[in-house]
Structure formats: structure tokens, C-alpha cells
Amino acid sequence: MKGNIKKLGVLVIITAVAMFMAVPTAKAWWPFHNTLWGKYAFTGVGNCLIQPPGADPFLSPLIANGVYTFDGHGSGTLQYVARFVDYPPGVIAVGKEAWEFKYKRTDQAQCFTEYFEAGTYPRLDWIAGPNSGSTNYFDVNGSCDIVVSLTGDTVNITCGHQDILTLTLCNPGEPPCSPIPFTASCSWSHVGTRVGE
Description:
Blueprint: H1 2-28, E1 37-51, E2 58-71, E3 75-86, E4 91-105, E5 111-115, E6 123-128, E7 135-141, E8 143-148, E9 154-159, E10 165-170, E11 179-196
Antiparallel strand pairs: 1-2, 1-11, 2-3, 3-4, 4-5, 4-6, 5-8, 6-7, 7-10, 8-9, 9-11, 10-11
């Protein structure tokens, strides 16, 4: 009987030690203190204040889903499908977008800033709505805030929180940008789950 109690005691101690060892191991695999890397599938919502040339501005709500990819060295891509209200107001449109961006750590743990270098123009391929079949490019000014979970399993990306994103439409198929006086001031929030490296 005493032997069984001793064995049970040893088993409890081993289990307890293993649990305490597992916690730091689960957290330590994510090198958030150095960089951000991997693929994150996301969904999100937002709004853009659209200013068409010679017309009144209108608010365009949007919903999006896609994938962020971070290369671990400060460069990333964003590919997603967005559904939103197009011009004229009230018309629903769907676009497939591709962005290239840069990112860097801030002075806060697990926080990064996403920004856009001059000369990089996100591409928008219209797949439904009045502009279906056409392609546009945008000149983007502004930045986004990225917060990574402690384990690296999720990211929260907020654009327009501190710095409103301003998108200026370019002539179709003409990067570098030849601006058209059609702008959008946007903010949105994306929540992503890690799906790959």
C-alpha cells in the first residue's frame, strides 16, 4: 500500500513538473521579439469615405477575407477578396486585390507597423459589379498597426486607427501611378489565424 502511495506521489510530481515545462515551451517557439513571419488567413470589416470627381462623397462599408504573408525580413503581401459599395452609391461590387507592403517592429513588444513604399501600387481586379473585368491600381498613403498574439497563432491588423489610409485611383493598367481625382479614405480591422509558414 505504501509503495503504491509513493508511486502515485512520484507520478503527481512528474506531471506537475511537465506542465510547468510545457508552458514556456509553447510560448518560446514564437520569435516575436525578433520578427513576424508566416501566413495568416483573415476576415475583416471596414469603411471607406469615397470622393468621386465632381460628386458628393459617400460612405462605403466593406467586408474582406484573404491571406497575409510575412517573410520574416520586413516584407509582406496581402491577397484578398473584398465586397463593398461602389460608385454610384448603392451598387455592390466585388474586387480581388493584391498588395505589397513593408513592416517593422515598434518599441512595444509584439507590435509592428505595416507601411507602403512609394512606387508600389496595390492592384484591384474587379470580378463583379459595374467595373467587372477591369483592373485598377492605387497609390496608397498611410500605415497599419499589427499586434501578434504571444504564441504567434493570431494577428490583429488595424488600418486607419492612427493614420487614415488614403487611396488615390490610378489610370487602369498604368503603374507608376497616373492619378485620377478619385480618392478613398479608409479604415479597417483584420483578424488573422496562422495557417502556414
